[in-house]
Amino acid sequence: MAYLALTLSLITISARATNNMLLTTLPPFARYVLRLSNIDVGLLMATVFVSTFVATTLLNPILGRWTRTAFVTSNMFIFLSMFLFYLSSSLTVWIISALTGFASGLVFPNMITAASAAKDARSVEQLLAIYTTGLSASLVAGPLFETWLLGFIGYREVFLPFSAVAFVAALTSFYVRFPQISGRHRRSSALLSKGFLASVLSNATYAVPFAAITTFLVIYASERFGVSKELAYFAFIPFFSVSFATRLLIALFPRRSLLPTFISSASITIAALLAFDFVNTYPLFLLLSAALGYPHGSIYPMSTIIIARSTPVEMRGAVNSYFSATGNLIFITVPVIVGYISHYIGLGTSFLMLCLPVIATFSVFLIKYGRDSMLLSVW
Fold first, then answer.
1. 29 to each of 24, 191, 226, how far by Cα in Å?
2. What mean pLDDT is reported for the chain?
3. Does domain 2-375 have CATH number 3.30.1060.10?
């Protein structure tokens, strides 16, 4: 258990810090260095997630004994991509983004599966909580590091220091263990399982606004408040700090009932999105970012725990792949939609409108699964 926790924590922090750097730096890099429009920025991010979706949906569920090889190779390529992005142009950035997105699609679903390698249910849930806490820790450390770097280098040059972080993930990938999973239950049974459907609905309540926040938060802070590039990027710090604190508490104090966490998280998301267009100072904007960190910190681990509680181990790899794929679909569509409508109503109002799909998925989840036993502890 200790070895699994240490290895998983190390690769989670380094791989997710690199991935988040790419997802949050590509938009301003494309907008201000490569001079792409907001619509092109949305399309570029959609390109990343389309290729990720292809990897998680078509390839990852059928890898079987090749899972570890694909996992290691993908981490190695992501390390290489740091140098490729540094050398990229307004044309080559599309190809590099697509290939990096594909590699990511073979990394993160398998990290969730690796977190399920423990033998008993309580240890599995604690490993999942440690995994998601590592995600949030990287999302605090990475932006802090990048905020400091942006004080004296540009968006292009910032890829080079992060190659060292990506190298840690590539090296650690050789030591990650995976549970023994048979090739059964990879398609229709996984897609129709209760755990998959419930996890997708719950995760959508945070993934929809988070897709827009990841892509446009820095651009919104720059254009709405006129702050410097490093101060604009700093908006991620309170967001991910609260997320980290939330996930750390979940790891230290496992939740028996998930329903109160879900209700409070979705409610805060809706309230924060409604407030977006009415915040007129940068400090208040930072408070709003911090508030959105709570649902970011709680909903995702809750969704992975739902999968662990409600699916057999032989089905879990496929369910995790399709679960990740649905998140990719959200990241394919939401940035494009928000980028397009922001030309007409502005980014603030576009964020506000995202409360509609959140309310919809929140309501459907409560109606369909609000009293289901999988929301209660199995240990």
1. 9, 37, 17
2. 86
3. no
Q: How far apart are CA 378 and CA 376, in angstroms?
A: 7
Structure tokens at 182: 């048979």
For position 264, what pLDDT does the model report? 94
Nearest residue to 115 via CA among 139, 98, 132: 132
Sequence-distant (≥ 6) Cβ neighbours of residue 260 within 8 angstroms: none
DSSP state of 66: G
Report pTM: 0.74
> Residue 285 gets which letter from DSSP?
H
Amino acid at 191: L
Burial class (CB in 10 A: 0-12, 13-18, 19+), 341: middle
Q: How far is CA 228 from CA 29, 218, 219, 290, in A?
A: 14, 10, 11, 20
Span 127-185, pLDDT tens digits: 777 878 887 788 788 888 998 999 899 999 999 999 999 999 999 999 888 766 555 44
Q: Is the pLDDT of residue 317 over 60?
A: yes
Residue 239: exposure state from Cβ atoms within 10 A (0-12, 13-18, ≥19): buried
